Amino acid sequence: MGNNKNIDSDIDLNKQITVISNVSDNLIRIMETKLENILLKHKQAVEVGADWKTPLGLFIAIVAFFGAGNFDKDFLSIDKSYWGSFFFIVLLLSVCWFISSIIIRHKNRKENIDSLIKRIKAEESKIAKGNH
């Protein structure tokens, strides 16, 4: 306790602290309806890109069912011969859905924050040019 020293904080801190200022930025002006339209399109593109999980899960479940299941009984008053065909058609549809989801995801792979800001800036440029 005997080692307490009084420090003049203003003098000592000014000598030891370097202040770095990074306050330069861009201002983007855009109409609310334009911004809403851009954000909705971006949201849709991002959500569509995540749709591949559902058809892949369906495909895996049906393949597992084909491996473990059998079609030797009638079910829900439907003849057993139709069940195999039904599941095969659902399997093909899930493969088509999966492939189309992957294609859409590939087309939208560049949807990120930077592309969103560029799109907003492009709209801002159109608005600014229209006003002058």
Furnish the topology, listing elements before pairings.
Layout: H1 9-16, H2 32-49, H3 53-68, H4 80-107, H5 113-131
> Uncertain segments of ≥5 residues (pLDDT<50)?
none
Radius of gyration: 30 Å
Please count the beta strands (DSSP E, at least 2 residues each): 0
Helix/sheet category: mainly alpha
Helix content: 55-70%
Average pLDDT metric:
75
Residues in β-strands, percent: under 5%
Q: How many domains in all?
A: 1
Shape: elongated
- What is the string of helix and strand elements? HHHHH
Largest sheet: none
Number of helices: 5
Folded structure, characterized:
With 132 residues, this protein is mostly helical. The protein has one domain (27-131). It is 67% helix and 0% strand. The chain has five helices and no strands. The protein has helices at residues 9-16, 32-49, 53-68, 80-107, 113-131. The mean pLDDT is 75.
Task: Offer a few descriptive terms.
132 residues, mainly alpha, 5 helices
Structure summary:
This protein is an all-alpha fold and about 130 residues long.
